[in-house]
Amino acid sequence: MFRNKIPDVVIRRLVTYLRILTDREAGPDDYISSAEIGDLADVNSAQVRKDLALFGEFGKQGVGYPVIGLRDELIEILGADRKMYIAIFGVGELGTALARYLTSRRETTPNYRFVIKGLFDVDKSKVGKEVDGIPIRHIDGLGEVMAASEIKIGVIAVPAWAAQDVANKAISKGIKGFLNFAPVRIKTPPGVRIQNSDVTSDLQELGFYL
Amino acid sequence: MFRNKIPDVVIRRLVTYLRILTDREAGPDDYISSAEIGDLADVNSAQVRKDLALFGEFGKQGVGYPVIGLRDELIEILGADRKMYIAIFGVGELGTALARYLTSRRETTPNYRFVIKGLFDVDKSKVGKEVDGIPIRHIDGLGEVMAASEIKIGVIAVPAWAAQDVANKAISKGIKGFLNFAPVRIKTPPGVRIQNSDVTSDLQELGFYL
Fold first, then answer.
1. Pairing of strands B151-156, B177-180
2. How many angstroms separate the CA atoms of B102 and B116, rounded?
3. For the whole model, what pTM was predicted?
4. What is the ipTM score, two decimals?
5. Which of B11, B179, B197 sits opposite A208 (nearest CB)?
6. What is the CATH number of domain A84-205?
């Protein structure tokens, strides 16, 4: 199946399956059933089998999927073995929390692929300081950092009113994907991808069931 | 359609549609097409029409949906007009950022429904302090706070190793839903709902396309 033909929702589920398989301690002879994956991923087992069948026949009837084999296949499908450089825009509480989280995940997870290559802010009282050893730079220095290491993902942790402007600057320097925590829709040219992470939307979804 | 029969993915999209309609300034005669909603929600227009048709005939052929009418319908479907009390567990950088975010959303958004009723930590150096006027309490005081106001949602912002224990305590006091930011799967009894918000999964999904 061609990479650009896989629906977004399937990619989202594959990421969840990979997470489940990575969390599990497993040896070369350990198998996991579609029912068990589905249970952990909150998806029915037929959907799990259908998603995985898109990429080949990994499972064995009545036995399930080899944990390590399937994990490695998912890593390859998702490209999850490629290192990826990140910049965080906005080093307030959220930006700082994200920076520390990513640093600690990298320290505790073998081969953790996301590496912070820059922290950016416009506040002069922050520029020059560090978070976990990573210096905070003025956003005008983004081009220089990009020249030294290819940053693919920008994490937007600025207030809503500043988000579009920050995204525009980052796009003009060549950043192609954003994880946006600002509670606002950001407009982007074709070829640039935005993923929104919005606490209010998460709470709305949860609230529906309560 | 019965409330408990609506698939999770549909609820997720309805939340996105509601957000799009809420973001839009509109008068009583303003309409929006399924194509426009789909474009903003990153969903195709047929899917938008199909999702909304589950709940009745809101749209007019060739004109679209009345912005205010559809928004009000979605608020009703999602129960998004009910106030909902929240507790945040873990008042580190992430918990503090979330508390400030929710407080500021409530100040800037009319009828913002999510109200923080408690901040909890176990760190004695934090207990007794405040974030935006909300006191930080020891988690052992949760029962007392719950007796005074029904907290429905617990936001888990503690380290991974503490998450299950915190969830167990909160469940024992009657909290029925969690938004979990700890990078770990939490086990819950039937009837308790967990929504995971995981930065690494968001980055994995984004990384697939870059």
1. parallel
2. 8
3. 0.80
4. 0.89
5. B11
6. 3.40.50.720
